[in-house]
Amino acid sequence: MNTISIRDKCLDKPIIQGGMGIGVSLGNLAGHVAENGGMGVISAANPGFRQPDFNKNRLEANRRALIEEIRKAKEISKGRGMVGVNVMMALSDGEELAKTAALAGADAVIAGAGLPLSLPALTGGTDTAIAPIVSSAKAASLICRSWKRHYGALPDFLVVEGSLAGGHLGFSLDELMSDTARTLDSIVSEVIEALKPFEAQNGRPIPVFAAGGIYDAGDIRRVRSLGAAGAQIATRFIATEECDAAPEYKQAFLKAGPDDIMIVKSPVGMPGRALRSPLTERLKPGVFTGVKNCVKCLRPCNPAKTPYCITAALTAAVRGDWENGLFFCGSNAYRLDKILTVRRLMKELTDGI
Ligand SMILES: Cc1cc2nc3c(=O)[nH]c(=O)nc-3n(C[C@H](O)[C@H](O)[C@H](O)COP(=O)(O)O)c2cc1C
Asked: 154 near 203, Cβ under 8 Å?
């Protein structure tokens, strides 16, 4: 297994633990993944949800919490691996939190849920590596061209997310429902091809990490045989002792079967994949659950029209509230059957690759 160089850092294991909001991947999970040689990623989706002033002063609460989670992850990692932060561009404070992450010493900022065209400006002057999440070669080329033209910069690495991933998906509802979305493997190969001219221009490789439905060492071997440097994996890290969510949250995944996984509409404006739950069953067309204490977290959300408040639903889930929570998951969530330590999972994922 080769180490992967990213800026001045090295990953011993070709694994990025995908950012999971709200509050599912914070400093504890990210720190332990980094300690075990991978890149642990803190979600910057409302990390301040437990702060007492969250409803009144969301940006400050999120900033304070994010800085604290980065500090915690770095302490746990003992200088090993890398500690990254995942930022969703659809969040109204996404740009501010990308800046905060870089200034607080995050090793990488990984940005998705919208084209992160301004990312190089937000982290400029720091050593933080930057990476977009894309679901097509077209988006990869567009971002590279735009960053090169406006900032003379290129991604330090790139995450390619296919349609089997958890959380928000970069595919239309029609593609997902009719199973016509391109496969992860074909998108990975196309992105690797599309990056070649930019790599040649810059004289350095841009490592690609494949995401969405990667479950075991065999899957990682498969995407590496296509030319990917490694994989970004999220769902498997939910079933770890170190995952930052409540024990009841993790148990909900262990109980799920293949028919309990579904596509939901999200106020983010993209479809998402989640466990079938009392909340998803209540959300029939035309049903509005109402928004209390709106914190204006999403640019695309209109609180008067949204069927449900995604911040309320995701924070209920991470606290273990099965009745009211939205439990995002990848397509392989039904395969989770036990809680492992991060050390054990990282070993299992990398044995023989
Ligand atoms: C519970 C959960 C929350 C997620 N939250 C985010 C998020 O806040 N931002 C993001 O870019 N991706 C998010 N994702 C996507 C993951 O980071 C990852 O790329 C994807 O789930 C990989 O597929 P896998 O879960 O099959 O391994 C989330 C996924 C899950 C399962």
From this structure: no
